[in-house]
Amino acid sequence: MRAAEDILIRPYITEKSNDEIANGKYTFIVDVKATKTEIKQAVEKLFQVKVLKVNTVNYEGKQKRMGVHEGYRPDWKKAIVKIDTDPKPVAYLTDGGKSVTTNKKYKTSIEEFGVAQ
Predict the structure, then answer these.
(1) Non-local CB neighbours of 56 within 8 Å, separated by 6+ positions
(2) Chain CA centroid to CA 93, Å
(3) Are strands 99-102 and 90-93 parallel, antiparallel or unpaired?
């Protein structure tokens, strides 16, 4: 299993991705070989949030020229992660039939996302 830091490469900041933050959707550039499950676990581990959904898009590298030399940019993968912005307390019954409610300690946003340096 790969480390969470190896799966998430960097946040992907555009005008559209900044608008989606209000809906709880954060966009990252991730490792090309990462699966949706690995991305979900990495975001939950690094940012202490509850991930509801992960959508991914694979991009092929464009062909570029510099003089007579031709080459390709690397392939890359983008992941759009929807987090739970309103975590509800979870209620369950114990062995004695007693109802127990627990509050989950999840954050409702990713503060580190998109910080200008």
Answers:
(1) 30, 36, 39, 77, 78, 79, 80
(2) 32
(3) antiparallel
Residue spans of the domains in the chain: they are: 4-102
15 Cβ contact partners less than 8 Å away, ≥ 6 residues apart: none
Pair type for strands 63-66 and 76-83: unpaired
Residues 6+ apart with CB under 8 A from 114: 11, 13, 18, 21
Residue in this structure with the two tokens 């550039």, named with its chain if needed? 29
Q: Is the CB of residue 22 less than 8 Å from the CB of residue 58? A: no
Indicate whether 116 pLDDT > 50: no
Rounded-to-integer distance, Cα 10 and Cα 13, Å = 9
Q: What angle do CA 115, 39, 34 make, to 5 degrees?
A: 115
CATH superfamily of 4-102: RRM (RNA recognition motif) domain (3.30.70.330)
Query: What's the pLDDT tens digit per position in 8-44?
Result: 999 999 999 999 999 999 999 999 999 999 999 999 9
